[in-house]
Amino acid sequence: MFKQQRIGIRFKIIIGYIVIICCLIVAGIVINERVTGLQQERNSLITYDTNMRVMSNNLERQILGMESALHRYMITEDEAFLEPYYQGLATWESKYHELENIAGNYSEGRHNLPVIYDSIDSWITQVGAPLIELLEAEATEQMIAIFNSKQSSVAMTDLQAQFTAFRTGENQAIQEQLQALDNVNKELTIALFLGIAFIALIAITIASTISRRIVGSITEVTETTSEIIHSSGDLSKRIKAGTNDEVRDLVETTNALLESLEKREWLQKNLAEVVTSYQGISSMEELGKVLLSSLVARTDSAYGAFYIQNQEDKAQFNKVAVYAEKSEDTSLLSFRKGEGLIGQCVLEKRTLKYENIQFLETSIGNVPLKNGVLIPVLFEHETIAVLEIATFNDFTPHEEVLIEEVVDNLGLTIDNILGRMEIIRLLNESQVMTEELQVQAEELQTQSEELQMQTEELTTINEKLEERTRYAEQKSIELQKTQKELEQSAEELLQSSNYKSEFLANMSHELRTPLNSILILSEMLAENGEKRLTEDEVEYANVIHTSGKDLLALINDILDLSKVEAGKMEVWFNEMDIYELPQYVERMFMPVAQQKGLDLNIQVSEQLDAVFYTDIKRLQQILNNLLSNAMKFTEHGQVQVIIDPANVTSKMKNYSDTWLAISVKDTGIGIPKEKQDLIFETFQQADGATVRKYGGTGLGLSICREFSKILGGWITVESIEGEGSSFTLYLPSLPNGVLKGMTQLPAPNQQAETAGQIEQTNMSHMFNNKHVLVVDDDHRNIYALKQALGQKGAITIEASNGLQCLEILQSQQPVDVVLMDIMMPEMDGYETMEHIRKDLKLVDLPIIALTAKAMKQDRDRAIAVGASDYISKPLNLDQLFSVLSVWLTDKEHSRNG
Amino acid sequence: MVRKKLELQLLLDAIYAVSGYDFRQYNQQSIMRRVLHRMRISNISTVSRLTELVIHDEEFLRMLLNDFSINVTEMFRNPTFFQAFREEVIPKLRQLPRIRIWHAGCATGEEVYSMAIVLKEEGLIERSIIYATDMNADVLKKAQKGAFPLHKMQAYTKNYLHSGGSEAFSKYYKTDEKYAYFQPCLLENITFAQHNLVTDQSFQEFDVIICRNVLIYFSSDLQIQVHRLFHESLAPNGYLGLGDKETLQFTPLADDYNIVNQTERIYQKK
Questions:
Q1: What is the average pLDDT across B214-229?
Q2: How far is A336 from A807, CA to CA, in rounded Å?
Q3: Pick the CATH number of A766-888 from 3.40.50.300, 3.40.1190.10, 3.30.70.1400, 3.40.50.2300
Q4: B128-134 and B190-194 as β-strands: parallel, antiparallel, unpaired?
Q5: Where is the domain boundary, B21, B38, B68?
Q6: Which residue of A lies nearest to B245 if distances are taken between CA atoms?
Q7: B127 and B259 together in one domain
């Protein structure tokens, strides 16, 4: 290739400048010369002009002086006047020559000067000289004649004209020359501009040429570089240099850079590929496999093996991967530190190369390889793995670098992978633990749920218990109250009943006395002893007697009953023989039964003790009543009397070990279920119709019941309407009579039936004696509240502002609830509540804030400062009492019963 | 222990066969505790005796069923739940033309009335329907009365105020000496019905399902079953509110819901 002569950029620029400077110098010199010449010419012209004028004038004046000297002499004849003439005569020629000399340069002047000379000469010779001669000759007349001839003046005039013409001519010539000089000057100016233009042109040409050459090559480099950039790093391109200058240096350097970059890029690309190829790998075997295949492929190698340090035995290295191996035993499976070359490599921690040598100690069998390397993989200055690579060729330098770099990074990678393996192991462990935790969390959740549930169960049980307690409490309070009332009314009743009984007893007695006489007398009349009465009259007497007997029986019944009720019934407990009872019944009722056509059946259990302690008379009275009822209400069938030992319950046992159950059963009309309780009441029968049909006072069963109570027992009834009734008398054997409290034994079928009934309560008395503190600055409000609360029984305490409220609360006066207005003078509701809660520490005192408007922020503020609840004005009385009842109710128990 | 389990299983089988109430999948420890409780009270020595009574004595069965049904509830129970409901769910419900709410396991209805009050205060009660269900007909009767013991009202008032209520609580009730009776107008949009979460199916699509402190009594399998039922019954973007000890976290349906409020256990179906 043609080697260009090297011309540097600096050189080019300097040359350009020198050329331009030379041109400028040449032009300067030329122009300067020309300007100087012109100046000189002009100067000499001006000098000449001046000199010419001075000299010509001098000459002219001298000649004229000479003539005038002649004239003065002639006039004065003084020879002294002739002196200028002689002087002029002596010098005029030299002056003329002087003039001629300076005019010599100018041809115009020379032509005229000789004429002047001739004129002067002729004047001197023709006028002057003769005159002087005449003068010497003193020939005055002649002289005058000469003067008069005017020859001299003519000559003088001519001379003057000649001088003038000379000067004019010369002047004209000078002007012409000046004109010529001006022209030259103009030309010179034009030439100057042309020169400048020319130089400028040259400068531009040089500048553009040089800059083009410089910029051109730089642009080329730039373009190529940017092409490389834009071709996303295709470093294979090279820049061509068009010139041989610094740009070429630049290009060559850049190309060298590109070359180096290309190599580096190859290295990095391959390094990156190799490194990325084993990213995410989590086992050494896989790492070895991937590493070898990628590295061997990139370095044109033929064989590779990878050994890793044994984690347990650090001196032992195991083969984890091999590349292009024929069979497993071609290479060493493992080696120890220092064993063979490969072991040495571990020991020395440096790369060992071998060439064309077959080392048995290396893992390569008999394969003749040209080049091989054993490279220790270091991590923290310790060999943790060995890489072996062998090739049939030579490793290029960058292949070697690649291998080195890969191995440099490999230490960290292996450590990372070991770390990762450890992490995976730990992760697995933690997963197991997480699952365990999850299980435990769920168990905990379950336990927490169970706890919650147990709490709820407990709450339920608690609530039930509470409810029961409450109920029981309430009941007991109610019972106490009822008991009191009952006691009271019982007392009253007792008293009135006593009066009644006394009255009845007296009345019966009083009635009996007249009745007695009626009975006796009517009986006597009915007997009709004297046969004076008609049959009808006898019958009347019989009716009177029967009615009287009925009346007596009734009066006796009333008397008995009133005695019982007044507690005046006397009872005598005696020993009796039970087995006598049937005889008594039979004796008393068999005739009636036979009369009505009824069977009277009496059964006595044989298990009975014969001896029984009771009041026989009363027992007989009870049986009489029961049997007469049975006889009365039975039309057909039978009346049965069954005497059995009763089933003795533990309660009954408290009274007596021996109990009788005497049943009187009939097949009569029966008693409807709803009336079964009523029949024992005084003057009650099943219904009015019964009375009409069967007669009777309805006192019988009442007496039975009362008597049975007196005897320590009770009567029960079982009956089906239309089929019959069964009355059973339960009677204890009481040798010592009835003891205190015995009569209160309740009949089993008379259980309290009030339980479970929800009574409708009037809530007004829950305000009874409750102290309500009303805090309000408006007395009308207080008055209205006082009225309303007063109606419910509550006691109103007034406070017209917060301070008063606090005073009242501090005064230990009882206050159950506070109604607190918010807008107040002195101290408003918010402040007051804050004081109550914080300073007075009345944390549980219910305070109900009264706010003018249902504004949420007012309400929130009231609650924040300690109001228990709030209610908005204007007050709705229902709502007010609802709120008060909520806050007057004790949280745990409802004690207001 | 094995025998106890067997006995319990037989008892629950018997209850299911006799009454149709299925407690077989309830939390066994809890059921066992209640069975033992009943045995202690009624002085019964073995669970098998109890089974016998359950089969033959209707009254006893009713009593036992009552023991099983735990009806602990309060008005505005966990007030923060209602506050969160007000703040985070109500604004979304506002956009619906009709709001259907299912209160499953409503017990004596305290929380149903609370919800009705919240809806009333938010101006949504007119377009809401609350279905309040429980498997226990007795408690539903109580719930329908809307009468709550006076002595609990102070606590309820406090709860109401904490839940962000905007009115005077006394606006909603009248009292007598024992009870506070809630305004019948609150009842207008509440439908009470007997429904058994274990045996009954979904009956409608709902925008909100509230089921608080009910699932804790169920075994985890049954909980999942009921969660499926809820999921089926919820409209897309519908809300599920659970009790504060309950969670969707360990159920397969956890991914089907977005958490609206973790602490108050409010979830939204995806």
A1: 85
A2: 100
A3: 3.40.50.2300
A4: parallel
A5: B68
A6: A449
A7: yes
Among chain A residues, CA nearest to B156: A886
**Do B72 and A871 lie within an 8 Å CB cutoff?**
no
Compute the CA torsion angle A295, A296, A299, A300 (nearest 10 deg).
-160
> Which fold is adopted by the domain A9-205?
Four Helix Bundle (Hemerythrin (Met), subunit A) (1.20.120)
Interface contact flag, A453 B216, Cβ < 8 Å: yes
Q: What is the pTM of this model?
A: 0.41
Termini Cα distance of chain A: 129
Residues B253, B144 share a domain: yes
**Range A820-830 average pLDDT:** 84
- Write down how long chain B is: 270
User: Is B96 found in the same domain as B42?
Assistant: no
Which of B154, B220, B243 shows the shortest C-beta gap to A886?
B154
Our CA-based measurement puts residue A820 at a distance from the nearest CA of chain B, in whole angstroms, of 15
Query: Into how many domains does chain B fold?
Result: 2
Cβ neighbour number for residue A853 with a 10 Å cutoff: 10
What is the model's pLDDT at position A670? 83
pLDDT tens track for B200-220: 888 889 999 999 888 877 877
**From CA A202, how far away is CA A209, in angstroms rounded?**
10
Residue numbers of B between 94 and 123 with CB closer than 8 Å to A: none
Q: Do B176 and A761 touch (CB under 8 A)?
A: yes
CA distance B250 to B215: 13
Interchain proximity A763–B177, CB inside 8 Å: yes
Residue B83 pLDDT level (bands cut at 50, 70, 90): very high
**Closest residue to A886, CB basis, from B70, B153, B213:** B153
Report chain B residues whose CB lies below 8 A from the CB of A474: none
Q: Give the pairing type, strands A316-323 and A771-775.
A: unpaired
Q: Is B166 on the interface with A (CB under 8 A)?
A: yes
pLDDT above 80 for A241: no
- Taking CA–CA distances from A474, the nearest residue in chain B reads B178
**In this structure, is residue B102 part of a structural domain?**
yes
Residue of B nearest to A446 (CA): B216
Name the amino acid, one letter, at A826: E
Mean pLDDT, chain A, integer: 78
* Same domain flag for B252 and B213: yes
With pLDDT > 70 as the criterion, what percentage of chain A qualifies?
85
My answer on whether B101 and B62 are in the same domain is: no
Q: What 3-state DSSP class applies to A336?
A: strand
CB-CB: which of B30, B175, B245 is closest to A886?
B175
Which B residues in the span 39-78 are in contact with A, Cβ-Cβ below 8 Å? 70-72
Enumerate the domain spans of chain A.
9-205, 278-395, 570-744, 766-888
Contact A445 B247 (CB under 8 A): yes
Extract long-range pairs of A443-446: CB within 8 Å, 24+ residues apart: A445/B245, A445/B247, A445/B250, A446/B27, A446/B220
Give the span between the Cα atoms of A480 and A366, in whole angstroms: 120
- A445 to B70: CB separation less than 8 angstroms, yes or no: no
For residue B90, is pLDDT > 90? yes
Q: pLDDT tens digits, residue range A437-463? A: 655 665 666 567 668 778 888 888 888
B contacts of A892 (beta carbons < 8 Å): 151
CATH of domain A278-395: 3.30.450.40
Tell me, yes or no, whether B73 lies in a domain.
Answer: no
Region of residue A872 (left: phi > 0; alpha: psi -120 to 50; beta: else)? beta
Domain boundary among B16, B40, B68: B68
Confidence of residue A759 (pLDDT cuts 50, 70, 90): very low
Quick: pLDDT tens for A158-192: 888 888 888 888 788 788 888 888 888 888 888 88
Please tell me the class of the A570-744 domain. alpha beta
Distance from CA of A837 to the nearest CA of B (A): 16
Q: Is residue B202 within 8 angstroms of chain A, CB to CB?
A: no
